[in-house]
Design a protein that fits this description.
This protein is mainly α. It contains 19 helices and no strands. The protein has a domain of 183 residues.
């Protein structure tokens, strides 16, 4: 594998091939949308119920344990699931060897996590973390055993089964978390729910995509291991700075501040995660399938960039505007410290999903080394920014994500634009309707709030009026200035429901 692969070849897909691929992708969107909708409902409901039953400190201490295990999770399968997805040349014999390697690596990483538990407890000055880290980190083992079969399900574009697995995991996690919280298990309820959900997902994955085990031979797995190494190192670096904000908040501002920050992160990322993941679940296998066809890459990259921006940006802007009323109504006054972080993190989530899409395309083109070094750069810059920002409080830490997007996102975009021949003017043209429409919506809602604050209106009514007005202004803006584009997506959604959607046309 070369370090800088050649750009994909030019090619024109036959209309019948395009329609067939569109049908597969549209079906994947439909299945994934159903799973994501159910997952979103279950996740929000269980989080809100748990927030009522547990304290910010409970969320904070599990967040501390999760910071460590989440960081190690990127190492547990060493990128071998990505190799199984992105390298169609691998035969069944090599895949069995990769499955054994992933299982062995994840078990080793779990042992490291268990031995490191006393150090984590000492770092955060909490003896409760010693056992909590050991139990919570068991998810690392599950990830390793699941990675290669999941990669193969993705390569097969088997969105139906992937959707069932995700929905089942969310259901079991929600039931386990709420049940344990009602039984008085405090912070352990969050660990019980998460572990039960992962085990359910593992069982279904092997039921539908059983992959055997075979002793690895280096000559057979060298190429996928090299790709996996790039992916793993990049994930480690990205994971390091992704959890460093929570580490800084927990270390410098305390458990309660971390609890507020972690809940703000969960609420701000939930809409973007679910909608973004709906598309990313489809786009990852899609770009792996068309990695040698530059015309198809440009077409689908434009389509999914526009879809992400039109759906996610207004939600993120809206959440940032209505955060005070939403937190007070849904979580109660004790969580008002989460309002500031929610605003900044909500704005960042839209940018993050666009960045993930760019990284997916670069990965399918085998630019894994470039992504790795960009992640290393982020791991150096972002923690320093969080430490500096912590002197101004938890909101400043959240704002650092937005301020440093020129470092974490722009270079990836520049690399992709040059590789696939996509013009910057076209990219800005794709984003313009969502950006201007979201800003217009936010200004309208802020103006409405001034009027509502001058009258004696309850919190529920105030929040509902702002949400309705914001949605109306955004749709009205698109209808007035971008009618053709709006109708294209409306027709696509209608076609999706009827099973006749054409993704490339949308």
């Amino acid at each position: 594998m070369t370090n800088e692969p050649a750009p994909p070849v030019e090619g024109v897909r036959e209309p019948e091939g395009v329609r067939k691929l569109d049908g597969t992708i549209a079906g994947g969107l439909a299945w994934t949308a159903g799973a994501k909708g159910a997952t979103q409902l279950l996740t929000w409901a269980s989080t809100l119920i748990a927030a009522r039953l547990l304290s910010p400190a409970d969320f904070g201490i599990v967040g501390m344990a999760g910071l460590f295990s989440n960081f190690l999770s990127v190492l547990s399968e060493f990128g071998l699931g990505t190799a199984a997805l992105q390298m169609p040349e691998l035969d069944s014999d090599v895949l069995k060897q990769l499955n054994t390697a992933a299982a062995g690596i994840c078990t080793l990483v779990y042992g490291i996590a268990a031995l490191s538990a006393p150090l984590v407890a000492a770092f955060f000055k909490s003896d409760q973390l010693k056992l909590l880290v050991v139990v919570n980190s068991f998810g690392l083992v599950i990830i390793g055993f699941q990675s290669v079969p999941t990669g193969l399900l993705q390569k097969d574009l088997d969105y139906r089964r992937l959707s069932f697995i995700e929905a089942a995991q969310a259901l079991v996690m929600a039931i386990g978390t709420v049940t344990a919280a009602l039984m008085g298990y405090a912070y352990w309820s969050l660990v019980v729910g998460a572990t039960a959900g992962r085990l359910a997902a593992l069982g279904l994955t092997y039921w539908w995509k059983p992959v055997g085990f075979k002793f690895p031979r280096w000559k057979d797995i060298e190429a996928p291991m090299r790709l996996g190494t790039h992916v793993a190192v990049g994930r480690i670096a990205a994971g390091a700075y992704a959890v460093s904000d929570g580490i800084v908040v927990g270390r410098m501002l305390g458990e309660s501040a971390l609890g507020a920050y972690q809940l703000a992160l969960a609420l701000a990322s939930a809409p973007a995660d679910k909608i973004g993941a709906l598309l990313m679940r489809v786009t990852g296998p899609l770009f792996a399938r068309i990695q040698t066809d530059s015309e198809a890459i440009r077409r689908y990259f434009r389509t999914f960039t526009e879809s992400l921006s039109l759906s996610i940006l207004p939600m993120m802007f809206g959440l940032a505007v209505v955060a005070p009323e939403a937190v007070r109504l849904l979580l109660g006054p004790k969580w008002m410290a989460a309002v500031g972080p929610i605003r900044w993190l909500a704005l960042f989530m839209g940018v993050r999903d666009l960045s993930v899409l760019v990284s997916q395309v670069l990965t399918s083109l085998r630019y894994t080394r470039f992504i790795m070094w960009m992640s290393v750069l982020g791991a150096v810059v972002m923690p320093a920014a969080f430490v500096a920002a912590s002197h101004w409080g938890v909101s400043a830490v959240a704002a650092s994500w937005i301020i440093l997007t020129p470092v974490t996102f722009v270079p990836l975009l520049v690399k992709l634009m040059g590789t696939i021949g996509f013009r910057y003017r076209d990219y800005l043209e794709v984003l313009t309707p969502a950006v201007i429409g979201s800003i217009t919506m936010a200004l309208a809602v802020l103006s409405l709030r001034v009027f509502l604050n001058a009258h004696d209106i309850g919190t529920i009514a105030k929040l509902a009026l702002q949400v309705i007005a914001g949605a109306g202004v955004y749709v009205g803006f698109l209808q007035l200035f971008y009618r053709e584009r709006l109708h294209r997506y409306v027709n696509f959604l209608i076609g999706l429901r009827r099973g006749k959607a054409e993704v490339s046309v949308a």
